[in-house]
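USER:
I would value a second opinion on how I read folds in token form. Give me a protein, with the fold worked out from its sequence. Write it directly below this note and I will take it from there.

ASSISTANT:
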Amino acid sequence: MFYDDFQVGATFVSRGRTVTETDLVLFAGLSGDYSELHTNAERAKTTPAGARIAHGALIFSISVGLTTQLGLVDESLIALYEIGRVRFPKPVFIGDTIKVHKRVAAVDDKGAARGVVTFHTKVVNQQEALVLAYRDALIVQRRPEGG
């Protein structure tokens, strides 16, 4: 899709993806975040969550990947413009399956070549419980002349 194709209120839903033990281990190694909430099963049992939880940054990263797999802006993306209002209302556990719901919140014309598309993004688990919410904006090309 190009900037001109996005309409305020349009919605998109990704496929699901199950968060695994391997995801947590690899993300801890990549990020350097070895917090015991993510890496120590015995310590995590003593926390309010009662078990190890996925890194918030991991869940955000997976949400970006699931969104990319929708293929919405494969040919038109210029750049990520902004991320804001990030909230993690519930933890994600090993074995949870998450999916992304995106709603176009605004479109902002930036001239003849491009515009900014702003989404309200929600990530839910297998029970449709909200685990992550944020606002993200992308700079997207306009449809080429004659295209």
Remarks:
- The chain is about 20% helix and 35% strand.
- The chain has a mean pLDDT of 96.
- Residues 3-141 form a domain with the Thiol Ester Dehydrase; Chain A fold (CATH 3.10.129.10).
- The CA atoms of residues 18 and 96 lie 6 Å apart.
